[in-house]
Design a protein that fits this description.
single chain; about 575 residues; alpha+beta; Phosphorylase Kinase, domain 1; Transferase(Phosphotransferase), domain 1; six-stranded antiparallel beta sheet; three-stranded antiparallel beta sheet; about 50% helix; about 10% strand; elongated
Length: about 575
């Protein structure tokens, strides 16, 4: 194995993290630090000998006392020296003195892809170009026996002059790269990489291959297109759990994307490395949306701001959850807990809104406990039991998304306006990331609606059955509430609408996935009409007393369905391609 050059003598001094002066090795003049990490600091510098701008990575010796650390520096230099590609940051040379090691590369002025994701997410057109550049870079590296092992947005640089130079993105930081034929730096079972962008085999300590780089690239693109990293959990344990469970199809989060592109990213994210295909397969799918025979399909890609594809920002999620909490607090207080007065209800609603906005999980628990305890201590254990049944089902089915926990309360709120049957469209719109979340939210909306109808004795959709016991007959007894309300609600006939709402919420994005123009309007109208007819059928089967035809709910449901996709963007074809 080649090693770094022999050390250059230097005057004795106390070795620190910083350089002894702004002129390193008598040649490189330091200008400004660009960033630092666990393996050193990167500086913008000027090579006074060759009169060019460079990036200088300085790795202090005291941070690299182990032999493996010295080998890691050698490995980064060797890996980078093997590569010469426009989409890979060019390596110039490796040097060292008594204080530190230095890796000299080209200087790329720009921002990382991670910074772009956080600040102003690339639109679909730009992201396709970035993906093609990175796929080409990885194909080049793999052909020369180099596996990067840490592909992630933080290691992708978007140059400020990308438009002028045509270099959409550059891959950097081969500090943990693996070179074919070389001994690994780590023992079997060691984990190298970044957990939120790591392939399952890397997380299990089985080592990385070209398929691992492909997985990480596909995950980076998934985050760019969908607006979220589907692996990143609140804790490392949660992230590892998601790794083992697989990733939801990109087509669920972005049903408007060309099918070939979504399918290629899904395939590259397979848990089994042998099922991922090759980097060239993903590259071909990306290129297919830019011209040639796929020009018509390319028009479905659109320019958008962050999360405009139906994906909510974290701030947007909290706003939705807080608004639903305010509705929930007012309805509970006014209808079920005998708290009246406009100002009092406004204060309760505001308190609920602020508590959920501050902490969705804690705020929801506070509302639930307050409602159940208040009903119990005011002499209505039956009411308390029904409220507990409504609240308890929510975290069981939506445990990973606390901001959604208050949303089922919007179903009875819509029912007050005669629009309850539009809730499945709202569920599909808000919980668009996974089919399970859409199904759970749709079913919970009906569960809350049915319990509210029992508690309020008002018709919000189907109304209580003619044989139902009035609230006065069970509100003072928990056992009577079980017998006269919960048990009937849990029969197949009464749960059928919940299943219908769940299925409708799951199917809506798939129905509209490839539709456009007039066909989208037709499909949305058919979906809404089928939902309303289905509701009437199950209501009749359950013996509900002649519910009116909810035309307003059908119209609202169709409008919500049509909101799934914004205006399309035409991508320019490549020169010479019709």
């Amino acid at each position: 194995m080649n090693t770094l050059p022999q050390e250059v003598s230097a005057p004795p001094r106390a070795r620190g993290a910083g350089p002894r002066s702004d002129l390193v090795m008598g040649r490189f003049r330091l200008i400004e630090p660009l960033g630092s990490g666990g393996h050193g600091t990167v500086w913008a510098a000027r090579d006074e000998r060759l009169r060019r701008a460079v990036a200088l990575k300085r790795i202090p010796r005291e941070h690299n006392a182990k032999r493996d650390d010295r080998r890691r520096i050698d490995r980064e230099a060797l890996a980078a020296a093997r590569l010469s590609h426009p989409a890979i940051v060019a390596f110039h040379e490796a040097l060292s003195d008594a204080d530190a090691y230095y890796l000299v590369t080209e200087l790329v002025r720009g921002s990382s892809l991670a910074q772009r994701f956080a600040r102003s997410r690339p639109d679909d057109r730009e992201l396709v170009g970035i993906g093609i550049a990175l796929a080409d870079a990885l194909a080049h590296a793999h052909a020369r026996g180099v596996v990067h092992r840490d592909v992630k947005p933080q290691n992708v640089i978007i140059a400020d002059d990308a438009v002028e130079t045509g270099a959409r993105a550059k891959l950097t930081d081969f500090g943990v790269a693996q070179i074919a034929g070389e001994q690994p730096l780590t023992r079997t079972g060691d984990v190298i990489g970044t957990l939120a962008y790591m392939s399952p085999e890397q997380a299990n300590g089985k080592g990385a291959t070209a398929a691992s780089d492909l997985y990480a690239l596909a995950l980076t693109l998934y985050e760019g297109f969908s607006g979220t990293n589907p692996l990143r959990g609140a804790t490392a344990v949660a992230t590892v759990k998601r790794l083992s469970q697989g990733i939801p199809s990109l087509a669920i989060a972005r049903p408007d994307l060309p099918r070939r592109l979504a399918a290629a990213i899904d395939r590259a994210l397979s848990i089994d490395p042998s099922q991922r295909g090759r980097v060239s397969d993903l590259r071909d799918a990306l290129a297919s949306v830019r011209g040639g025979a796929a020009a018509a399909r390319a028009r479905t890609l659109r320019r958008r701001r962050p999360q405009a594809a139906g994906r909510l920002t974290e701030r947007g999620k909290r706003l939705v959850g807080a608004t639903a909490a305010a509705v929930l607090g007012i309805v509970l207080s006014d209808e079920f807990l005998a708290v009246h007065g406009g100002m009092t209800l406004l204060c309760i609603g505001t308190a609920a809104l602020l508590s959920v906005a501050f902490s969705p999980r804690s705020g929801w628990l506070l509302i639930a406990l307050a409602a159940v305890v208040w009903a119990a201590i005011t002499g209505e254990p039956g009411t308390a039991l029904l409220l507990a049944a409504a609240f308890a089902a929510t975290p069981l089915l939506l445990g990973s998304e606390p901001w959604l926990w208050c949303v089922p309360a919007l179903a009875p709120a819509l029912g007050v306006l005669g629009l309850a049957a539009a809730f499945p469209a709202l569920a599909a719109r808000l919980a668009g990331r996974s089919a399970w979340q859409r199904a759970a939210l749709g079913a919970l909306g009906y569960w809350w609606l049915a319990i509210t109808e029992a508690l309020s004795a008002h018709r919000l959709l189907f109304g209580a059955a003619a044989s139902a016991t009035p609230r006065s007959g069970w509100e003072g007894s928990a056992s009577a509430a079980v017998t006269h309300v919960l048990s009937p609600l849990c029969t197949p006939g009464h749960l059928a609408p919940a299943l219908l709402w769940a299925v409708a919420a799951v199917l809506l994005p798939w129905i509209l996935r490839s539709a456009s123009g007039a066909s989208r309007i037709a499909f949305a109208a058919l979906w809404a009409g089928a939902l309303i007819v289905g509701c009437l059928i199950v209501a009749h089967s359950a013996g509900a007393p002649n519910p009116p035809l909810p035309l307003g709910a059908a119209a609202l449901g169709a409008l919500l369905a049509l909101s799934f996709r914004a205006a399309p963007l035409r991508l320019p074809a490549r020169p010479g391609v019709a």
